């Protein structure tokens, strides 16, 4: 297979459980060495997609290829090349860090010497000691996630799947985790990461936005912002208590808004319509243009209309 070809090819993928389509006709490619983000709310179909690509679930229809090989018929061949950190903790709580890593290595028939060398290298990479004496159950959530990452990388896979890797962790841990993800990509790993944190998507080379089993938008963060927001959103700060009646007037005019702290964020591509709806309250707020966020993009994409 040509090294410039996509490492993952998904075409018209459907994963159904009875009459319910958890994944409903999605198609996308992932390039070698990129950080590809799959974004959406819980239940959007992200985990089902990732488990299907890893060969854990079978597609109801459509095709999934990794390095040109059909996953359904090549799972045993592809398994050593894939690292998977699942959404739930994949560590044994009664074992220590060292014991968990040795067990993970044994699943890939690694020798004790190879496990020891690789464990030492990985724990240095993530900034932890493999000699932590306590069982994993005694560690913080953030440390557990770091150890789970090391466990998924123990056999040195080329393709790494991270399913909600920062869920439930502190902002500091999330930042540290994403620094590790970027370093893995710099080392040549292909990273496929799912998350429902929209701010994390800024770290991805490309992202796909998923809603109810379907991809509703896909591209780089910059491309999606330009596509859905050729006109920038407005941010309103208030000098008088007019926020609630203003929001009601905007809603009546079909103009979406959302509260961000003490300010109001307004998606108003039609500035004339905004000015008309806001006119009775104009002496009670200041408005300025602001850069769209990926949360703005996601909400606009899910609504089924671009801000044009």
Automatic annotation (TrEMBL):
GO terms for molecular function: ATP binding; ATP hydrolysis activity. Residues 8-237 form the ABC transporter domain. It comes from the Bacteria. SUPFAM superfamilies: P-loop containing nucleoside triphosphate hydrolases (SSF52540). Keywords: ATP-binding, Nucleotide-binding. Pfam families: ABC_tran (PF00005). SMART domains: AAA. InterPro entries: AAA+_ATPase, ABC_transporter-like_ATP-bd, P-loop_NTPase. Signal peptide: none annotated. This is ABC transporter. It comes from Candidatus Avelusimicrobium gallicola.
